[in-house]
Amino acid sequence: MHPDIRQIQAVVEAEAAFAQDVLAEVGKVIVGQRALTTRLLVGLLADGHLLLEGVPGLAKTLAVRTLARALDISFARVQFTPDLLPADLTGTLVLNPRTNDFDTRKGPIFASLILADEVNRAPAKVQSALLEAMQERQVTIGMTTHPLPDPFLVLATQNPIEQEGTYPLPEAQLDRFMLKVKVDYPTRDEERLVLDRMSGGPMAVVRPVADAARIARVREAVRMVYLDEKIREYVLDLVAATRRPADYNLRLSELISFGASPRAGLFLLAGARAHAFLQGRAYVTPEDIKALAPDILRHRVILTYEAEAREITPDEVVREILERVAVP
Question: What pTM was estimated for this model as a whole?
Answer without folding.
Answer: 0.88
